[in-house]
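Hey all, quick one. A colleague (J.T.) asked me to put the PBG job into the tracker so the inputs and the structure tokens live in one place instead of scattered across chat threads. No bug as far as I know, just bookkeeping. Sequence used:
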Amino acid sequence: MFPETRLRRFRLNENIRSMVRESRVHAEQLIYPIFVVEGEEQINPIASMPGINQFSLDHLLEEVERAVSVGIKSIILFGIPAQKDAVGTEAYNDEGIVQKAIRLVRGAYPELVIIADCCLCEYTSHGHCGIVTEKGDVLNDPTLSLLAKTAVSQARAGADIIAPSDMMDGRVGMIRAALDQEGFTNVAVMAYSAKYASAFYGPFRDAAGSAPQFGDRKTYQMDPGCSVRQAMHETELDVAEGADYIIVKPALAYMDIMSKTREAFYQPVVAYNVSGEYAMVKAAAQNGWIDEKKVVMEIMTGFVRAGADLILTYHAIDVAKWLAE
Ligand code: PBG
């Protein structure tokens, strides 16, 4: 009789389980998203994202403080302008909503890591991530210089990291070159590299008012069934163009991509736990169908196990609080 192997010996009590536990979540790896709007006295709840609001600048610092006070080191800002137009002018206006928000937060929190989402869809009247022809085709190359202008304007306002989420080909290289040319060599690029054309973005589009007015994003965002090699190809191009961090988005249905990305590249991998993933958990929890805290912590642990270094999530403040309990 050979000695019997019993994995149960690793599970007998919490001390042993935690001693051999490999995947752990910590507050320092969380990135908290915040939506900012023009106007005053605005705290507008997003119906499809319970607990998440749009904030006007006079309430922004309260929300930032809520995150900082529980140990979160990084936020990502999304701006919703008062005026939208065909070319997304407000995205690259130095006095635009996100630029004002960055300056305000930077002034109050010199060390907080401020990430700026860099895309045109929140700023265009048609809701596409780039400029479009009359027929509705997205014009990749003419969009690149507008994204580069947006990135420089966000860096000038004080952003530490620019996160292009538009999925135009060649944008990371254009943004990197523009940042360097303006002297922002220390500003990093966190590229949404493997970003899929996903139905999980619905609640975000309610929050940002960025649903496309016609068509969809399938010509520029990735097809969910495309090969894993295509995801690696997208990422390889972004890395070659200068991406410092790699985002995989959405997260839950794309954990294979997260783990492959971790193996294939050296850059930190970011899991973007998107709005629809958040909404599903919230809806089930509100119905009493799942235990919210346990489910969220299991999801976060799964991201880490799959290879995520950082987790961008609307649950961030709750997670940080639970970790501290
Ligand atoms: C902008 C952008 C989107 C998200 C982040 N940046 C929406 C989209 O591509 O339609 C989605 C985030 C989420 O669902 O939480 N391009």
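Adding what we noticed when we looked at it: The pocket of PBG is lined by residues 117, 119, 121, 129, 165-166, 201, 204-205, 274-275 (CB under 6 Å). Residues 23-324 form a domain with the TIM Barrel fold (CATH 3.20.20.70).
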